[in-house]
Amino acid sequence: MFALLGDIEFTVADGIAGMEQRGTVDWAEHARIKGKPLLERVGDGLDEVNLSIELHPKLGDPEKRWRALREAKSKHEPLALVLGSGDYLGPHVIADLTLQHRRMSGTGQLLSATVLLSLREYTGAFTRKVLAKPGLINPALSGTPAAAAGTPGLLSKFMPSPSTTQLVVGHAKTAANVLQAGKNLYDQVKSGNASMILGQVPQLLGLTVRAIEPLQNLTEAAGLLQDGADLAKLGEDILGSVSGARSSLDPVDLGNIVERFAASRESLDQALTTMDGARPRLAGLAAQVLTRRA
């Protein structure tokens, strides 16, 4: 995960293309009869964070993601901003939301675009919602004045290591996001000719590589759970399908790419189907985290 704004999660796999942080200081300028003006510090300016987000079907549903951002802006509420590193940047409001269209369908449906999201620091009264995100919350701080105020640094400085259950849920979610992004790309490529498909092989292989690490981590973490044998087996099965998708595309040439691509796509579909089948089990673990039971 790259960052979390309220309950909106941003990941590189979802299209985060860039981030800019800006801080200012306000100075008053006093003219003098002789010599240069004198500067006097008035106070610190509001911090600003600017995000650039690419919307494309292979990264998720563009319309759905754009709608989520618009709804958050329309509520006019400050939202907690937390980086994936665990650093809490404090409450921010959506100050500007710009959609730069790249491609539209013949019926006006959004196909690809760039979103420019500008956030400004909020210094008013703010009660931070406690979110059960692995690696972002220190349960010991829940209900304390410091947690309510959202004091910067508490999360990153005094945060204990996430529980094994949190790790399992987090790795599973990361793997699922990558697999879904892979399926979206495969669906985009499948209608192309052999030459076009061959040109997309490096990107397809890159997606399969990105799925390997979270699946390995899922298998390892699940093996540490008392009742995690089924999830460890799940990770191994999905990893096997992803490895099959990768091996089908290496090596390939113009003569065999169509057949190899079909086999690779079938393996990736199987990986995603297996992951989808585990959603109830993973939802149960997530519920345990939410209720502080794991």
From TrEMBL:
| InterPro entries attached to this UniProt entry | Myoviridae_GpU (IPR009734)
What is the protein's given name? Phage tail protein
Entry's Pfam families?
Phage_P2_GpU (PF06995)
Superkingdom in the source lineage: Bacteria
Q: Which organism is it from?
A: Pseudomonas rubra
